[in-house]
Structure formats: structure tokens, C-alpha cells
Amino acid sequence: MSKMKVATDFFHACEGLKGSAGCAEFLAPDATFTAQSEPIADITSLAGYCDWMAGFAAGPVPGCSYEIHTCAFDEDASTALFFATFTGQHTADGGPVAPTQKTTQSHYVYAITVGDAGKVSHMTKIWNANWALKDLGWT
Fold first, then answer.
1. Residues contacting 83, CB < 8 A, separation 6+
2. What is the pLDDT of residue 85?
3. So what's the pLDDT on residue 1?
4. What mean pLDDT comes out for the span 75-96?
5. Which position among 73, 74, 114, 123 has the lowest Cβ density within 10 Å, counted as fewest Cβ atoms?
6. Which residues contact 55 (CB under 8 A, 6 or more apart)?
7. In the 3-class helix/strand/coil scheme, how is the chain assigned residue by residue?
8. Over the stretch 31-58, which tens digit does the pLDDT of each residue have?
């Protein structure tokens, strides 16, 4: 399987809210995660991020969705970039306040590196979390 296909399949599994169990086939055992966004800044494992996404959707923002606008693959860096928009509405318990019924459409980028073993070894999420949380009425 090509590295771009691995990255693409992983993206859809993660954004499809499958959690770490549903993403495991694409992940290197020690796959790392980084983000400079408050709600997820302390997450360091990619499996942990996959579980955070699944929990976010199972909790305060059920029925959320995503739309990919574009993607690219850098062969030299073995890294795929996905630019997408997350859409979600705070309709259920689980956020820092009671359900607000407010909606966000928040842009983000995933930079997904696929290692030589053909598994995702690292991902960075670029996301303006403050924008999304303000939209949801959380700040």
C-alpha cells in the first residue's frame, strides 16, 4: 500500500471517529502526536488523539462531520497534508457548560508522516481551537 493511501485511510478512520482501536492498523506502535492547541496540547500519542476525537464526538458534539478541501503528499518527507473543515454542534452533555446548541465550522490541517514500515509514525494537528471553542459558546 502506498504511503499516501496509508495516510488517507488513517485520516478517514480518525475523522470517522473510530478511536485508537479503529485506527490501529495504520499506526506504528509508538506513533506520536503534537498540537499547539489548548484542548489537545498535552496529548503525545497518536492513539491518544484518536481516542480524544472519538470521545469528543461521543460526548458534547455528536453527529459532527468533516470535509476535506485538499490534500498533498511530499515524497521526500513521507508526509501527507490534509486541509479540512470540522463541523459540529454542542447538543449533548460533556462540554464545560450545558449544551449551547451553537455550531462551529473550524478549519484544520493534519500533517501525517508515514514511516518506512508503511505505518503512520507521527501527526501534527494545526487548529485554532480558540475559534472553535468560542463558536461553541465555551469561552
1. 68, 69, 70, 71, 107, 108, 109
2. 98
3. 83
4. 96
5. 74
6. 19
7. CCHHHHHHHHHHHHHCCCHHHHHHHHEEEEEEEEECCHHHCCCCEHHHHHHHHHHHHHCCCCCCEEEEEEEEEECCCCEEEEEEEEEEECCCCCCCCCCCCCEEEEEEEEEEEECCCCCEEEEEEEECHHHHHHHCCCC
8. 999 999 999 999 999 999 999 999 999 9
